[in-house]
């Protein structure tokens, strides 16, 4: 068995103190420097461990004050988080670290990225960058527009019109990536200890982000039709949350969409309880049906903050995202952007603009959608052969949300021994036991891995 990392050892040390009531709820724990000196580790190691424990819900960080034991730590998180420390393999922090390392295409079925050979050809990217560099003298010595490169915003508004969404570029803001856009909105609208609703299951990065911002997470069950309306109304009525964060299209991790009837009813609840919705539509270009409704389609710019980006199509290094926001929030959001990001990088935004105008771009999108359909057909046949049910409600997105009926946390640890990076179900919820689920990226799931999965299932399923 591999020796635990120093970060994992520090996490174990702190968790033991919490579980034995040495560190009590709301109690401040030793500072980073103090514990580093006590355990003879670097301050960087202690800081990483503390941030990891925040993402798991054991600690909360209060700016200017330090780290405190989180009193709302739930039993479900304790139960499913424990196995991750066995080898530091299956926890969110470990998985996030591996997102920033080069991954073998056939060894990363847990990745959230498309393989590089699925993305826009490098030749087109080089041409776009070269064109933007030639124009650099026009903008490179100034901040640029705080809302972002206007021609790009206008072109994005045109793309939205093809989806039935009427959008004014004057109420759009660009940001360096969808994750930065989400944080910008949260920092503008919320304060520490506010309540936020997320889908259950939900993107693991989002859960960690909300913990980092010291926000209280409320989970609403999500199925193939959308959120459970009865539970959603209960949460609105009981906790008065500021925002509900969701994917209406190709939800991560389930690839479910939201039915039109649910969209109507959710928008009604937003008005009734004076709440807002953050709609993360990062997977929009991969949706086959251009008539699929989104919350923003029906909202008319009142309650929905709509976010989309380019990283899933152009590649993870392209950190360009768009926010289309209610008019009354423009000044508030721009002020927060100025104080956090100043402006976005116009060189990158001009390059995206050139790529979008290239004649091959729409063909590329169509090809990606067709490849996804073929991948799903192949995956369904392969899963049938090894006795795993293909989720019928799933749309043809990047992910499948599979119920394997066995412990996927332990599976992830075993898979790592063969250099496979998996995304076990417990990462995607802090309130529900999804420990027998697995998020599978259909574009990165190889025949080799499916053979390994079949053998593992045959050995471990009773």
TrEMBL record:
Keywords recorded for this protein, A-Z: Aminotransferase, DNA-binding, Pyridoxal phosphate, Transcription, Transcription regulation, Transferase
HTH gntR-type domain residues: 4-72
PROSITE patterns, alphabetized: HTH_GNTR
GO molecular function: DNA binding; DNA-binding transcription factor activity; pyridoxal phosphate binding; transaminase activity
Domain of life: Bacteria
Protein's UniProt keywords contain Nucleus: no
Family label: In the C-terminal section; belongs to the class-I pyridoxal-phosphate-dependent aminotransferase family.
Name of the protein in question: Aspartate aminotransferase
Lineage: Bacteria, Pseudomonadati, Pseudomonadota, Gammaproteobacteria, Pasteurellales
């Amino acid at each position: 068995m591999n020796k635990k990392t120093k970060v994992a050892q520090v996490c174990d040390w702190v968790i033991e103190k919490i579980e034995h009531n040495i560190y009590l709820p709301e109690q401040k724990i030793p500072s980073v420097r103090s514990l580093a000196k006590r355990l003879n580790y670097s301050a960087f190691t202690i800081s990483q461990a503390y941030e990891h424990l925040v993402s798991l819900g054991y600690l909360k960080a209060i700016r200017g004050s330090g780290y405190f034991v989180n009193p709302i730590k739930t039993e479900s998180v304790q139960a499913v988080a424990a196995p991750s420390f066995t080898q530091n393999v299956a926890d969110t922090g470990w998985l996030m670290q591996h997102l920033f390392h080069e991954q073998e295409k056939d060894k990363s079925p847990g990745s959230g990225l498309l393989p590089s050979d699925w993305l826009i050809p490098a030749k087109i990217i080089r041409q776009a960058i070269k064109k933007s560099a030639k124009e650099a003298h026009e903008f490179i010595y100034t901040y640029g527009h705080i809302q972002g490169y206007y021609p790009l915003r206008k072109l994005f508004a045109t793309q939205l019109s093809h989806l039935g969404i009427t959008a004014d570029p004057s109420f759009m803001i660009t940001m360096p990536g969808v994750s930065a856009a989400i944080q910008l909105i949260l920092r503008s609208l919320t304060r520490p200890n506010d309540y936020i609703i997320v889908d259950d299951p939900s993107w693991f990065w989002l859960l960690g982000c909300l913990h980092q911002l010291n926000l209280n997470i409320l989970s609403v069950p999500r199925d193939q039709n959308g959120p459970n309306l009865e539970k959603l109304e209960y949460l609105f009525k009981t906790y008065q949350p500021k925002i509900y964060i969701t994917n209406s299209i190709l939800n991560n991790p389930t690839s479910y969409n939201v039915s039109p009837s649910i969209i109507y009813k959710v928008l009604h609840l937003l008005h009734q309880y004076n709440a807002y919705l953050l709609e993360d539509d990062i997977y929009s270009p991969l949706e086959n049906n251009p008539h699929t409704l989104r919350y923003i389609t029906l909202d008319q710019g009142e309650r929905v903050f709509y976010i989309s980006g380019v990283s899933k199509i152009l590649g993870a290094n392209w950190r360009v995202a768009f926010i289309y926001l209610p008019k009354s929030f423009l000044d508030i959001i721009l002020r927060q952007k100025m104080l956090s990001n100043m402006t976005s990088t116009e060189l990158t935004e001009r390059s995206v603009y050139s790529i979008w105008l290239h004649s091959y771009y729409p063909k590329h999108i169509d090809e990606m959608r067709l490849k996804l359909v073929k991948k799903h057909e192949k995956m369904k046949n392969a899963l049938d052969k090894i006795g795993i049910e293909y989720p019928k409600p799933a749309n043809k997105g990047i992910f499948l949300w599979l119920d394997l009926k066995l412990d996927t946390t332990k599976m992830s640890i075993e898979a790592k021994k063969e250099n496979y990076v998996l995304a076990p179900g417990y990462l995607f919820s802090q309130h529900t036991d999804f420990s027998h689920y697995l998020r599978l990226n259909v574009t990165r799931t190889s025949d080799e891995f499916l053979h390994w999965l079949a053998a593992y299932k045959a050995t471990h399923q009773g």
